[in-house]
Amino acid sequence: MQLLVSGFLGIILAGAVLLWLPVSNQQPIAFIDAFFTSVSAVCVTGLVTIVPAAQFTLFGKVILLILIQVGGLGIIVCMTVFFMLLGKRITLRQRIYIQQTYNMDTLSGMVRLIRWVLKVTLVVEAMGAIGYAIRFVPLYGIGKGIWYSIFHSISAFCNAGIDILGDSSLAGYVTDPVINLVTMALIISGGLGFTVWSDILHVLKIRETYQRTPGRIFRQMSLQTKMTLVITGILIAAGGIGIFCLEYSNADTIGAMSNGDKLLASFFHAVSTRTAGFATVAQGGLRDATILFSCILMFIGGSPGGTAGGIKTTTAGMLLFSCVAVLRGGKDTECFGRKIAAENVRTGASIVMVAVLALLGGTILVAAAEPAMALGDVIYETTSAIGTVGLSTGITPMLSDFSKCVIMFLMYIGRLGPVTVVLAFVSRQDIGKKARKLPERRIMVG
User: Fold this and answer.
1) Who has the most CB within 10 Å: 146, 318, 385, 437?
2) Could you give the CA distance from residue 9 to residue 116 in angstroms, rounded to a whole number?
3) What is the number of H-type helices and E-type strands within the chain?
4) Is the alpha carbon torsion for 99, 159, 229, 205 positive or negative?
5) Could you give the CA distance from residue 170 to residue 285 in angstroms, rounded to a whole number?
6) How does pLDDT run across 202-240, given as a tens digit for each residue?
C-alpha cells in the first residue's frame, strides 16, 4: 500500500516540476497550477485551473500525455514494465499487488498478464486514434490531426478527460456522431477494466461458445464480469434517458437541438460522468436536478481493474444486492446464483463510508473557503474530484489555493481508493489486532 501511495506521489511531483519548467509553458505558470495539473493527469481526472491548449508548449503537452498514460495504467504496472525492459525480475510485493488489482487466483503468469494489458491498451488506443483521425486530419491537417487523435484517444481510454482543443472541451463536436461515438467507446472500454475484457475474450475463445446463445455465453462469464456488464449497461441507459428528460427543454444545454442530437448529447454526458470528464454541453448550464443526478453517476464511477474512478460499479451493485438480502430477511448477499463473500461486502461498505466522509469533508472545506460560489457548483466540483471525473461548472480556475489543495487531495484518494490511502498510514501492529476474537454483542440499528 505504501509503495503505491508513495509511487503515485513521486510521479505527481516529478510531473509538476516538468510542467512548471519554462520549456513546458508558453507563458509563466504558478507552481500550484502545475502541481494541480499533474495531480489531475496522474489521477486521470481532468479538472484543470488553466487551459492546456493555450498554456503548454508541445513539450509540455507530451509530458501531460505521458502523465495521463502512466496514471491510467497504474504505477505498479508501469514499474513492472520498466523492470521487464531492464531484464529484472518482478518482486513478490509487485506480484501480490498485481494479483489483488486484477483479482487473480495465483501469483503465476504476471509477466504474461502485464504484456496483455499493454497490448490491449496500445491496440484500443490505436483504434481510437484512427477513429479520431477521420475528423481531425481533414480539420487540422495531417501533422496536427494525427497528434490530436493520439492525445485524445489516450486521454479518453484512460478516462482522463483532458483535451488540447481549447477551453470548451468537445463542445464544438456536440452533434458529430464520429467524435461522440469514438469517445464513448474509448471511455467505456477503459472503464470496464482489463479483468472484464480478459474474461470476455477467454469465454469467446472457447470453441463451444460459438454454437451457443448469448444467454449461455453470459452464464459462462465470471460473477465480476456479469455484475460489471449489467450495472454498466443500466447506468448508461438510465443515465442517458434521465439526462434527456431533465435537460430536454433547457435552452442552455440541449433544448435547441433535434431529438436525435439531444439523445446523442444526453448519452455522451451519461458516459462521460462515469469518470471521463469530456463535455459536449456547457456544464454551467445544467439544471440543479441534472447536477445532482450527475453526481450520483460520478460517485459510482466505472469498474475495478481499469482506468476509471469512483466507488466502482461492482461495489454499488454488491451493496444493492446486500440491501435486497436484508429486506428479504436473508443472511447472504446473492447475485446471479452465487454468494458474495462477507468480507467483500464489509470492504465495499467501508469504501463507500470513507468516500462519503471524504466527499462531505471536502465539500464543507471548499464551501467555507469559497462563500461566493453556489453550493451546487461546489458539490459538483468535489464529487467530480473524488470520482476522478473532471467535469466542472467552470469554477476550477477561480478556486483559492486552499480549495485547490482540497480538490487535489480528493483526486488523489479518488484514484488510489480511499481505503488504500487509509491503510497506507495504518501500522502493522494495528492491522495485527484484527486477529483477536472479542465477545459478540448486538446493538439497535435503523
Assistant:
1) 385
2) 26
3) 20, 2
4) negative
5) 15
6) 888 775 555 667 777 888 888 889 999 999 999 999 999
